[in-house]
């Protein structure tokens, strides 16, 4: 470590420090990191604070549009109450709405059964229904209930489930599958490619022919086989995607290893008696991290798109769990009358993909400034 004239040590700058400064100077990459962090926090923490479970069904609010106002609307309360009370075979004379309470005067040609308020409590619009002021002859009474106010900021789907909660839960699934599948692909690809490139010769030839054979097989073939053997579940997704996407990583790392193993520091390690595993662990793999990190940021959006495509085909995650691909698939079938079912999941998916791609471009420029 160099020292100044007064004897104080000055800390030198590493290449990683320079790369970090170049990355932070890239406004698009920094904005993308902030956006990606916001999306991730919203997806993982948002469902914990939202009032609606992702699998809760509101039968009275099927395909309601996105709105900042609470449901039901004022003009919907009286007709809904009358419809529910008619199931109890009574006549609704008057309905008054006062704030969060609604009062109805009812009459009937026969005795009124107080249990008719169960129709109100079973609905999604009212709660705490009571029968009061029952007449002596049992032919008239007053029914009171509380209006249940619900917010659906992204609207609801075709089953009456809150789309905002489901979009955030879908983000959890898509981001988790993207990260896990990428880690699987990176782990397999780095180890396979570095071993193949470092050992060389017939071993390299055989290992690369295996990669070529796997390249020739269609991706969907692997997925169908995994579905047959393991069934449709969450774990299957990142195993299926990661088990195929490592092929590109293996070729990239192999090319880097072929150039690194001719470097002086690798030859010096071999001359000192370091075994092959030690050379790979200490010298080859650490020096391939730059391209690996860049490829990883570009692989995550690719994996998310693949998962969305598989979910669109019905081979992905299953209900009631969901992903952005599942929501987009459902939204595309209802785009004519319920466009919000397609718009909100698409916004989250596209913004995440753009952010990851901009981060990948920023890392590429930061780690390889000569390529700018």
Please give the order of strands in the largest beta sheet. Answer: 1-2-4-3
Helix content: 55-70%
Structural class: alpha+beta
| Biggest sheet architecture | 4 strands, antiparallel
CATH architecture of the largest domain: Orthogonal Bundle
Number of domains: 2
CATH topology of the largest domain: MetI-like fold
Kindly provide the radius of gyration, computed on alpha-carbon positions and rounded to a whole number of angstroms: 31 Å
Topology, number of strands? 4
| Shape call | elongated
> How large a portion of the residues is in β-strands, by DSSP E?
5-15%
Enumerate the spans where pLDDT stays under 50 for 5 or more consecutive residues.
Answer: none
The CATH H-level homologous superfamily of the largest domain: MetI-like
Distance between the termini: 31 Å
Q: Quaternary status of these chains?
A: single chain
Order of helices and strands: HHHEEHEEHHHHHHHHH
Give the C-level CATH assignment of the largest domain. Mainly Alpha
* Distinct helical segment count: 13
The mean pLDDT is 83
Family: Belongs to the binding-protein-dependent transport system permease family. OppBC subfamily.
Subcellular location: Cell inner membrane; Cell membrane
Main location: membrane
Protein name: Oligopeptide transport system permease protein OppC
């Amino acid at each position: 470590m160099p020292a100044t004239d007064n004897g104080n040590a000055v800390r030198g700058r590493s290449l990683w420090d320079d790369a970090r400064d170049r990355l932070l100077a890239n406004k698009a990459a920094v904005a993308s990191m902030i956006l990606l962090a916001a999306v991730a926090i919203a997806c993982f923490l948002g469902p914990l604070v939202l009032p609606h479970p992702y699998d809760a069904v509101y039968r009275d609010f099927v395909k309601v549009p996105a709105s900042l106002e609470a449901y039901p609307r004022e003009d919907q309360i009286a007709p809904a109450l009358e419809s529910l009370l008619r199931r109890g075979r009574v006549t609704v004379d008057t309905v008054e709405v006062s704030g969060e309470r609604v009062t109805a005067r009812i009459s009937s040609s026969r005795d009124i059964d107080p249990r008719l308020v169960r129709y109100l409590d079973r609905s999604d619009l009212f709660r705490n229904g009571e029968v009061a002021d029952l007449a002596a002859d049992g032919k008239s009474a007053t029914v009171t209930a509380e209006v249940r106010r619900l917010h659906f900021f992204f609207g609801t789907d075709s089953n009456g489930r809150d789309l905002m909660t489901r979009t955030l839960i879908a983000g959890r699934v898509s981001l988790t599958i993207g990260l896990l599948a990428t880690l699987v692909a990176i782990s397999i690809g780095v180890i396979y490619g570095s071993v193949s490139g470092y050992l060389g010769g017939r071993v390299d030839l055989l290992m690369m022919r295996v990669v070529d054979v796997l390249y020739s097989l269609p991706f969907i073939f692997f997925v169908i086989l995994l579905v047959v053997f393991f069934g449709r579940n969450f774990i299957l997704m990142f195993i299926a995607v990661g088990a195929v996407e490592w092929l590109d990583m293996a070729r990239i790392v192999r090319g880097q290893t072929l150039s690194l193993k001719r470097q002086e520091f690798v030859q010096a390690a071999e001359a000192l008696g370091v075994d092959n595993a030690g050379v790979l662990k200490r010298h080859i793999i650490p020096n391939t991290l730059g391209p690996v990190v860049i490829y990883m940021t570009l692989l995550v959006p690719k994996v998310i798109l693949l998962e969305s495509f598989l979910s669109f085909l019905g081979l992905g995650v299953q209900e009631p769990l969901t992903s952005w691909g599942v929501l987009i698939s459902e939204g595309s079938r209802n785009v004519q009358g319920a466009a919000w079912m397609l718009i909100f999941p698409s916004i989250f998916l596209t913004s995440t993909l753009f952010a990851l791609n901009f981060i990948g471009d920023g890392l590429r420029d930061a780690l390889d400034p000569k390529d700018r």
